[in-house]
Amino acid sequence: xxxxxxxxxxxxxxxxxxxxxxxxxxxxxxxxxxxxxxxxxxxxxxxxxxxxxxxxxxxxxxxxxxxxxxxxxxxxxxxxxxxxxxxxxxxxxxxxxxxxxxxxxxxxxxxxxxxxxxxxxxxxxxxxxxxxxxxxxxxxxxxxxxxxxxxxxxxxxxxxxxxxxxxxxxxxxxxxxxxxxxxxxxxxxxxxxxxxxxxxxxxxxxxx
Length: 208
What we know:
Layout: E1 5-7, E2 14-16, E3 20-22, E4 30-34, H1 35-48, H2 50-63, H3 65-78, H4 80-93, H5 95-108, H6 110-126, H7 134-154, E5 158-162, E6 180-184, H8 185-191
Antiparallel strand pairs: 1-2, 3-4, 5-6
């Protein structure tokens, strides 16, 4: 009969078997330390030997550039939303530094900036219905004027956000006045390409 729980040898707390890392060499098939204690020990070891770990990783990346790129791409794909949210938090807390870094990057990468701008312009153009009236087109431009004005007046960067993203996670919105709003850059970055919570069920592949 397989045990459903065991006591961690570090914190001495009885926990479910799935709270331990698998380890075939042990009798129950899991390690003697629980995951929480194991992670804490790992963090402690890293803190004490940070320079050595950093140097070892840097050396490995230098010797294995292709593999390192693949590993990073795989990690980013699994943690994309978490990483983007962390980036948004950092840029919000370090706005002036972030602004300077972004401007430096733009100056050093004009071709990539132009490509990104052209792609986004085409995306908006494809998402703009041909039946919009002149007044509705003017309202769209007004939203961008409002974002610029709010940025200037408050000193806080503001964006024009598509409530339903143009290229979202399982949903494509339209570039129309009623799908636009002016929010802070931080709010926009944290939102990512997601539908409003109360409309998440409308995404493709979500069971109705």
